[in-house]
TrEMBL record:
Keywords: Iron, Iron-sulfur, Metal-binding. This is PA0069 family radical SAM protein. It comes from Flaviramulus aquimarinus. InterPro entries: Elp3/MiaA/NifB-like_rSAM, MJ0683-like, rSAM, rSAM_sf. It comes from the Bacteria. Coiled coil: none annotated. The keyword Metal-binding applies. NCBIfam families: rSAM_PA0069.
Length: 357
């Protein structure tokens, strides 16, 4: 990657056109060269936190490919900067780019705890696990400042409602006592995403996430405190981390995880362009090979929107990946099981206190 134009600490290396906008702008090479010669910054690379005020926070998930019925997202956009993230496209609905804007324009929903409480108190609401976060990481760097996820966990505990967490950040350990209290009544499961055991790979794929060592330590700490943990080997990217499936599974099991899950990378919407630009700059020696192998898993295209196959893929490479995951489960998780979350307590606590009759 050209050091003059590289944007440090970010996954995407540019903004791409928002499909909902008629006009677009670009950062020209001659402008970048001018800034370099003049010793000026073409891009200050700052993260902005922008408050938004949605009317609801719990979303019904209709996709048949996702194993959840309801999700909630305290933040839109994610500073972790994972280059492959399927959530990038959602930033276009807010008027931003799926590229750098997704990592640097973080929309903050400060009213999320209040909105969640209103949802759980509805007479019509029947307890179903709600996943934090189905889209962007609920423990991304913004959470250290705003503590919205922490406040939402307090709401789940108050109303004895089941919740699942997906994160790749060790910041969850800040809320260990809350998570332990929820686990006592079988009200929580935690999904920790670990895509590689290599720090070099982690840094280029997921530049602002917790280190692999910290994530494995998080799995161990949670497990030792009686909190069920599933490790997500997601996404599996051919010729980048596909060779790590067995060692990843072994390490996850040794640190106390009860199960593993996986998805095959899919570069839907604008992500195909963002990922292609990134890999040609970051891993030019294998870029064409990786892109061709991804296409071979998705009917010859990077952008696979077909329900049933878009997250699993098809073809020989996808089949090899699924067989390796199956072998990993048999080898390292044969006698382990994730518990079913308890949805039977919430009705008694719907008004925030225990009912006697």
């Amino acid at each position: 990657m050209n050091p003059k134009s590289a944007i440090k600490g970010r996954g995407a290396q540019r903004n791409v056109h928002n499909r909902f906008f008629e006009l677009s702008h670009e950062m020209r090479d001659d402008f970048l060269e001018f800034c370099h010669k003049e010793g000026e910054q073409a891009d200050k690379n700052k993260t902005l936190y922008l408050p938004v005020f949605p009317k609801t926070i719990v979303n019904k998930v209709t996709s048949p490919d996702v194993g959840m019925l309801y999700s909630m997202n305290m933040y839109q956009g994610c500073e972790h900067g994972c280059i492959y993230c399927y959530a990038r496209n959602s930033h276009e609905f807010w008027g931003y780019s799926a590229g750098l804007d997704f990592e640097r324009r973080i929309l903050v929903k400060k009213d999320a705890p209040k909105l969640l409480e209103a949802q759980l108190k509805k007479k019509s609401w029947k307890a179903q696990p709600i996943v934090m976060s189905g889209n962007t990481d609920c423990y991304q760097p913004a959470e250290k400042q705003f503590k919205i996820t922490q406040q939402c966990l307090e709401v789940f505990l108050k109303y004895k409602h089941p919740v699942a967490i997906i994160t790749k950040n060790a910041l969850i350990l800040r809320d260990l006592e809350l998570v332990k209290a929820l686990a006592k009544d079988n009200l929580i499961v935690v999904n920790i995403s670990i895509t590689s055991l290599s720090e070099t790979t982690r840094r280029i794929l997921e530049p602002r996430t917790a280190s692999i060592k910290k994530r494995l330590e998080t799995v161990k700490t949670l497990s030792e405190n009686g909190i069920p943990v599933n490790v997500m080997l997601a996404p599996i990217i051919p010729s980048i981390n596909s060779h790590e499936i067995l060692p990843l599974a072994k390490s996850a099991s040794e640190h106390g995880a009860l199960s593993i899950g996986h998805t095959l990378v899919r570069l839907n919407g604008a992500i195909g362009e963002i990922f292609s630009d990134w890999i040609k700059k970051t891993l030019p020696d294998r870029a064409d090979k990786v892109l061709r192998q991804i296409e071979s898993c998705h009917g010859g295209t990077l952008n696979d929107s077909r329900h049933g196959t878009r997250m699993r893929g098809e073809g020989k490479i996808a089949e090899q990946i699924h067989n390796l995951v199956k072998l990993a489960r048999q080898k390292y998780f044969k006698d382990k099981r994730m518990p079913r979350l308890n949805g039977g307590l919430h009705e008694q606590f719907k008004d925030g206190q225990l009912k006697l009759f």
